[in-house]
Amino acid sequence: MYIDIITSFLLVFGALLMLIAAIGILRLPDFYLRMSAITKAATLGLGMVLFGVAIHFDDIGVFAKALIIVTFLLLTSPVGAHAIARAAYKQGVKFWGKTIVDELELLIQKSQQLEAEWLNDKTNLIVGEGLILTLLKLPSSHGGSFNHALAIAKDISLVSPAKGHRLMGIIYSKMGRKIAAEQFLNRACIDSNYNNKSVYALVGFYTDNNLPIKALAILEKALDIHTENINFLMKVIYLSFDFGVRHKFGFECCNRVITSESEIQSDYLLEAARYKRFFIERLSGKVE
Amino acid sequence: MLNIAIIVSVFIIGLCMLLVMIRFIKGPSLPDRVTAFDLFATLVIASIAIFSLVWENTNFLDVAVVLSLIAFLGAMSFAYYILKRRK
Known about the structure:
Number of domains of chain B: 1
Structural class of chain B: mainly alpha
CATH architecture of the largest domain in chain A: Alpha Horseshoe
Largest sheet of chain A: none
Largest sheet of chain B: none
Strand content of chain B: under 5%
Helix content of chain B: over 70%
Order of helices and strands of chain B: HHH
Oligomer: heterodimer
Number of helices of chain A: 13
Number of domains of chain A: 3
CATH class of the largest domain in chain A: Mainly Alpha
């Protein structure tokens, strides 16, 4: 009796969810909205109907079959929807008139505008940097190209070697050529006398490749030159804590933040004091 | 109770098929028709599940498994076709 009630409820409710999907596909104004309507409602609706059937038969084999269908649907329906929507976008299926943001279109416009400005004036480094970062974000089918970005970075390095080398390092690390990327980022650090941007780029590269010791060595060198730089000190503390390496150096940096004579925001002081306690605990734990 | 529920849900799914068919005929673009076809395949799977309940025969569920596989392959190949077709 109870089984009948549950089965009836699941059947009717699943069918109603499918009705929502069908109304959505008929009434929604553009292709992409219709796509979203069917993939959500239909999957849940079919799942409810199948589980209703499985509960009615009360048999492990039927239940397994229902589970197979539902799992398969949950895996494939987003993939299929994504593939079709991507193909439709590339074919130029129109958006609804009230769509506000089309990020790829905005990115293409921005890259074209920056390209024009860059060709106009090749000494304007801010425009060049913006152009390179936009080109790295664009997919290759819409004008994004590593070689083009590299050519621009070479032009920049003629004017300002530090900036050019940093950008070339970033491009190489996106291409996956790690040795070249490391070389260029290191050169950028030396050329720019360890300024914020180059050091961040190199440290980011090392942490992405899971080399915290090298990152900390670079920060140590940078701190020899800029002894009072609060950003570097905090970066050392976070890295040392997250990766669990070189606690003594992290502890030292906590002390340097706390005893520093220049004005520091109170947030940083609080953080440093909190992390100092962790470092003391970890260091004393090792001794015992 | 279960008989009424089966009749109601079959009726609703038939109505859904009708609505999806309207979208299939209207278009306006090929991706619209492909998504309508995808939803139609889902509806057929649901109706097969309900008919296996009507005839008390669980073998029909195997058909539903195969159909869900084929619907996915159909959608993927249509996506590839849309991508490669000339504008």
